[in-house]
Amino acid sequence: MTNNKYPFKGKVVLVTGGGSGIGRAIAKAFLDNQATVAVIGRRLEPLEETILGYPKDRTLALSKDISLPASAGEIVAEILSRFGHLDVVVSNAGVYESGKLEDLSADKWEKMRSINVDGLFYLARAVFKPLLASKGNLVAITSVSGIRGDWGQAGYNATKFAVTGFVQSLALDWGEYGIRVNGVAPAFTITDMSKGVAEDKDKLQQFTNRIALDRPGLPQDIAPAVLFLASPDASYIDGAILPVDGGTSASTGQPHVVE
Q1: Which residues have C-beta within 8 Å of that of residue 251, sequence separation ≥ 6?
Q2: Whole-number Å distance between alpha carbons of 56 and 72
Q3: Cα–Cα distance for residue pair 215/211, rounded to 1 Å
Q4: Alpha carbons 54 and 44: distance in angstroms, whole number
């Protein structure tokens, strides 16, 4: 998953949304670099698939709903009980609902906000003390949709802008304690959430037309950036939002005209 090798042996890593897509790739990348990893998600079976084949003394799968206020504290308590400390937190869990604002139902908005924003808020509060003890760090998965606007997804972008702002502000507040907070901002990435578009050549072309590298992202493109930001190599990087987007955000937005 990564070309570089990072010194995560003995480090304990928490990854939310670890049962598929980007979260699964991140969890496996940490495990391949000898970390101990706890994967969190709503369904236990895909979490267990993520950690299958890795040593049981370095893995933990917890079925929890991070949108609930009590879940984060329960997750942290179980990790500390099992492993004794917590060094890296990756807030990856997220959901996407498209639709113009006038068509976006209150239920869909509530679902996105509660997972994308509230889940990060509750998690950050719960991990502060363990990260203070370990001088650890937090990496949140935001999006290029949390940096610029998009047509037809104002609700989703609002949640991702909240994540981006949360990361930057939290970095300011926690920096004095030696806790780094950074974000990774993917663009269109092929996961279970986006496979409907990926399987439609015409729709996919509309996305790749905006990507300088002329292909959609893959989960394994995102994981190395997370490991770097969590590693000692990034010890003086704090409050950064790193686009991992194939050049999507480099564009002014004008169309890619092929001669």
Answers
A1: 210, 212
A2: 22
A3: 7
A4: 16
Our answer to whether residue 96 is catalytic in this structure is no
Tokens representing 137 are 């760090």
Print burial letters for 154-185: b (CB count within 10 Å at least 16), e (below 16): bbbbbbbbbbbebbbebbeebeeeebbbbbbb
Annotated catalytic residue within 6, 96, 156, 236: 156
Q: Tell me the per-residue pLDDT of 210-252, one tens digit each, with 9 for 90 and over.
A: 899 989 999 999 999 999 999 999 999 999 999 999 999 999 8
| pLDDT value of position 210 | 85
Rounded distance between C-alpha atoms, residue 239 and residue 225, angstroms: 14
- In sequence order, the 6+-apart residues with CB closer than 8 A to the CB of 48 are 61
> Are the CB atoms for 23 and 93 separated by under 8 Å?
yes
Nearest by Cα to 115 from 91, 90, 146, 80: 91
For residues 137 and 230, give the distance between their C-alpha atoms in angstroms, rounded to a whole number. 6
Question: Does this model's pTM top 0.85?
Answer: yes
As a whole number of angstroms, the distance between CA 158 and CA 28 comes to 30
Sheet with strand 59-63: strands edge to edge? 59-63, 36-41, 12-16, 88-91, 137-141, 180-186, 241-244
H/E segment holding residue 89: strand 88-91
Structure tokens belonging to residue 68:
């609930």
Three-state DSSP string of 237-256: CCCCEEEECCCHHHCCCCCC
Closest to 141 in 3D by CA, of 207, 193, 70, 85: 193
